[in-house]
Amino acid sequence: MRLPCNCNNILGLWLVFLVFIFSSNVYAYPKRIASINLCTDQLLFEIAAPNKIISITYLSLDPEISNHPKRAKKYRVNHGLAEEIVHLNPDLILAGKYSSLSATKILRKLGFEIAEFEPAVSIDGIYKNIERLSNLIGRPNIGRKLIQKIKHKFNPDNMENHAKKPTAVIFKARGFTLGKNSLANEVVLHSGLTNIAQDKIRGSFDYMPLEQLIALNPDLIITDAFNENSPSLSQNLLKHPALGKITQIGSRENHPNVAVVPARYWNCGNSFITHALAQLKNWQIKVNK
Amino acid sequence: MIKFDRKALLWSVLLIFLIFVLSLLSLSQGPTFLPLDTIISSLYSQANTSTNIIIQEIRLPRTLLSIMIGAALGLSGAALQGYLRNPLAEPGIIGVSGCAALGAVIVFYSGLTSIISIALPLGGMAGAAISVLLLGLLAGYKSSVMTIILAGVAITSLAGSLTSLVLSLAPNPFATFEIFFWLLGSLADRSFEHVKLIVFPLVIGIGLLLTTGRALDALTLGEDVASSLGFNLQRIKWTIVIGISLAVGVAVSVSGIIGFVGLVVPHLLRPIADFRPGILLPLSMLGGINLTLAADILVRVVSQGPELKLGIVTALIGSPFFLYLVIKSRSKLQ
């Protein structure tokens, strides 16, 4: 069939043009990234180029839960509200899968590009999130390096595996404790400790009564550090005299030790998880003596 | 001295006996099961075992606080009802508890308690004192039943919203969760430090309130008669104000607002006291202890996992009672 004009050339040109558009789309990685979730903030700080970030959450300013409070000061902070994000006109918004749901919904309706991230509940989950984000923003190499760094520490060959496994319970403010299918549990197990709370609670996290902790009498109580200047009843539970009494040294045999692991190391899944592991490994060796 | 007749005496003995039974039950209630003989021997043991720590450091202070706070709330209810001659008066309803919680919250979350722990009960006391004085300014102590309740409702809601505001603005991320504790009350995981902190002001407050018995008896005949009988009305007023501020203020500062105890107990015991406020005071104190102990046991029995707040249970018991009183007073007015 002959076309009324010499369209072959034109078609060819169109094809070249389309390929150009398509490829330029693929390689136009986001330049204005906003994050409305603490954990995606933290991943951004580790992977993205600093000048590509335009906003992170106010939580990243808090040195207790954020690993990058100083860097966070350079950016405009948001509180997970759609209105704060819209006028920044980001080309990629990072959100948690289960937080700020209404904001995510509105922003998607308005046509913004949104990537929702599952909270990491395992080391594998961290790898997945790092891989996904680094591909999304065009820095797969950095992602790969980060994953290698974590993999090196969490190598099954490096797992502490002694015949005698000291018992441990994670006990945070309000008695918050973690069990099966949680990131913290995996770290605890990998450090050569057994988390005896995992059989006592339903689900992967729960609030444990102080009494139950004392009755369990673990070798190691793993808890958070906190700021004395802004008190709360929830954190004051960790100062309960009963807790002080069971951890008194020398008063009886096998008193529990207390390991303080800063919340920022393992609240979110990122490369700082290796710091939590290193601390717990040290404690495991100390307790196992 | 107030003379107890046989009926009141018998009931006092019964209530005291019940306090012992409920205290033992309270000591045996918790997430870990412990047999009764272990519990009793644990109370005297010096050894540093898990069981002894659970009994001595967790359950014993909790039981003691139930007793102390129950006594303060029951007695304050009876004293307020007697003094204001108003059946609906109660620390929770007229805003004393709400303001005490506000005072404690301001002191605690500003970090003052971390510097000096005594600031906590002082904050509660100051809040309670301000509310009683405010009530006097707003409604006057001689005004009608409804005016006082209305003023109380206004003070309570103002104090409640200010408490929530302070907790929302507090820098600590856990503070917002703790609105529940302050507005609904709880005795979970309190310690001997709290007992020591409040025991002196609480006992003084209770003592002051108990001394007003004869004056309150005289007041049932009207203020003129009472002053002609030689009672100094100003002195009674200030004894009540200071007593309530001490007792309720420090109680709320460690337990949050536990409502309705002061409303229900005096009403249940009034027939036993033959409607004499002087006898009703000590009886309500014993009754308040029993109700608070029982509610705090119930809280631990019904909840699996995180505990119910104590104020939920007392409100569930108290609010139907409150409705009953409203209906009764309405039919009286008609």
Low-confidence parts of chain B: none
The poorly predicted ranges of chain A are: none
Number of domains of chain A: 2
In N-to-C order, the SSE pattern of chain A is HEHEHEHEHEHHEEHEEHEHHEHH
Secondary structure tally, helices of chain B: 15
User: Could you describe the largest sheet of chain A, including whether it forms a barrel?
Assistant: 5 strands, parallel
> Which two protein chains have the largest interface (Cβ within 8 Å of the partner's Cβ), and how many residues from each?
A-B, 33 and 35 residues
Which characteristics define this entry?
heterodimer; A: 289 residues; alpha/beta; Rossmann fold; 2 domains; five-stranded parallel β-sheet; four-stranded parallel β-sheet; 13 helices; 42% helix; 14% strand; globular; B: 334 residues; mainly alpha; ABC transporter involved in vitamin B12 uptake, BtuC; 15 helices; 0% strand
Blueprint (SSEs and pairs):
The complex is a heterodimer of chains A (289) and B (334).
Chain A: H1 7-27, E1 33-35, H2 38-47, E2 53-57, H3 69-72, E3 76-78, H4 82-86, E4 92-96, H5 101-109, E5 114-117, H6 123-136, H7 140-153, E6 167-170, E7 176-178, H8 183-190, E8 194-195, E9 205-207, H9 210-216, E10 220-223, H10 233-236, H11 241-246, E11 257-260, H12 263-266, H13 273-288
Parallel strand pairs in A: 1-2, 1-4, 2-3, 4-5, 6-8, 6-10, 10-11
Antiparallel strand pairs in A: 7-9
Helix pairs in contact in A: 6-7
Chain B: H1 6-28, H2 36-44, H3 50-84, H4 96-109, H5 112-115, H6 119-139, H7 145-169, H8 179-184, H9 192-210, H10 213-219, H11 223-228, H12 233-255, H13 261-269, H14 277-302, H15 310-333
